[in-house]
Amino acid sequence: MYLISRIRIVLNRFVLKNLNLPKPFCLIGVGAAANLCSHLAATGVQRVMVVSDKGILQTGLLEPLIAILTAHQIKVSLFSDVFPDPDHLLVSEGARQLQVSQADAVLAIGGGSVIDCAKAIIHTCTNQQDPRKLAGLWLYAWPRKRGVPLFAIPTTAGTGSEVTIAAVVSDKVAQTKMPMIDPKLTPKMVALDASLTLGIPAALTAHTGMDALTHAVEAFISEMAFVETDELARAASRLILQNLPLAVADGQNLSARQNMLYASCLAGMAFTRAGVGYVHAFAHQLGALYQIPHGLANAMLLVPVLELMQPACNSKLAILAYDVGLITSNDNTDSRAQKFIDHIKALCRQLAIPQRIESLREEDINTIISRAFAEAHGTYGVPQYLTRIEASLLLRRLMP
Ligand SMILES: [Fe+2]
User: Are 191 and 223 in the same domain?
Assistant: First the structure.
């Protein structure tokens, strides 16, 4: 079974390295969100469906952006029902509303759940399928149609969804989460505007930032990585480790928040080709079963997974330690790698990331492992395969 998974990873790497994946045009800096809205009119868009959530709606963030759209004679319909970890029912409802609105573009304004939901809505509406049938890697599926263009304005720095080919959709009844992975999901244009992220609560900043760090680290140690993704992942890791503590300590630190948005985008570009790994595979299951926020689940799993993967990716972790200035001339590869893991451990303590999952139950462990392995093996370039015993010990470390 592992041989088949490895063959698929070699194939995935070849395709993802050589295929000309779409890259969104990025507007960066304060004012970028307003510029993107003005630019929408210039692209010939006449009707747009804005996808967002109630929280963003209540902050008043949408009003000035929608005002710019209407000032350019663009008809706006609003779908602001997105909730964290959107499920297939919500996506289907959004797809129905997109069809009714006859919008020729979608504008997602929000965090990763909003952008993922917008991607899935377009894909579902265009392909007239149950969203659950659109999950998985596009390489192994029947070709799908491209929908209307997606424009994205992220309001959190973490998921990198604004530049990736993936969208995660939950099934609340089956208690699962599966990613749709298809280049056709990639947004056309994005605005990285830190002024929209000012004042986000410290815990949310910490969790989303740890999600971005996990993308960078898992992409860097992936068997599917190559020179371009390595450079993106290293730059992201360095920026996140320098700026995340500053952004969490002071919600108004504009430069730290702009750097985090940029780093999250770089990490997104890295993992859209190199993939993620076991941290995400397990985090998706914990999120689906116990509603643990995605970034928090990643933050709790990152150190335990890296400790298990360390023998297979020591030299790569040593490079990340070098990038952050953690090493001395006396360190060998092992101690450099250990210093990087210790640095993340200290960061988790500083960000008050809990070490235990109160809701994690012994009787769920087998299901979590089976589902995480089904997600990871053959899709993610994990540096080393875990046995079920190792995975079970990993999860038991998180039990209350
Ligand atoms: Fe993630």
Answer: no
Residue 95 Cα to ligand 1 middle (Å): 24
Statement to judge: residues 239 and 186 lie in one domain: no
User: How far apart are the CA of 299 and the centre of ligand 1, in A?
Assistant: 10
Residue closest to 42 by CA, chosen among 80, 10, 7, 73: 73
Predicted pLDDT at 389: 97
Same domain, 31 and 143: yes
CATH number at residue 344: 1.20.1090.10
Percent of the chain at pLDDT exceeding 70: 99
What 8-state DSSP symbol labels residue 87? B
Q: State the Cα–Cα distance between residues 294 and 339, nearest whole angstrom.
A: 25
In the reported structure, the alpha carbon of residue 336 is separated from the centroid of ligand 1 by a whole-number distance in angstroms of 25
For residues 313 and 234, state if they share a domain.
yes
Looking at the domain assignment, is residue 160 inside a domain?
yes
Amino acid at 161: S
| Ligand 1 centroid to residue 218 C-alpha, Å | 10
CATH number of residue 38's parent domain: 3.40.50.1970
Ligand 1 centroid to residue 110 C-alpha, Å: 15
User: Is residue 114 a part of any domain in this protein?
Assistant: yes
Establish if 4 belongs to a structural domain. no
Q: How many angstroms separate the alpha carbon of residue 293 from the centre of ligand 1?
A: 10
Q: Is the pLDDT of residue 1 over 70?
A: no
- 92 and 146, same structural domain? yes
Distance separating alpha carbons of residues 400 and 398, to the nearest angstrom:
7
How far is the C-alpha of 113 from the C-alpha of 161, rounded, in Å?
Answer: 9
Residue range 114-145, pLDDT digits in tens: 999 999 999 999 999 999 999 877 766 678 89
Structural domain that includes position 370: 202-396
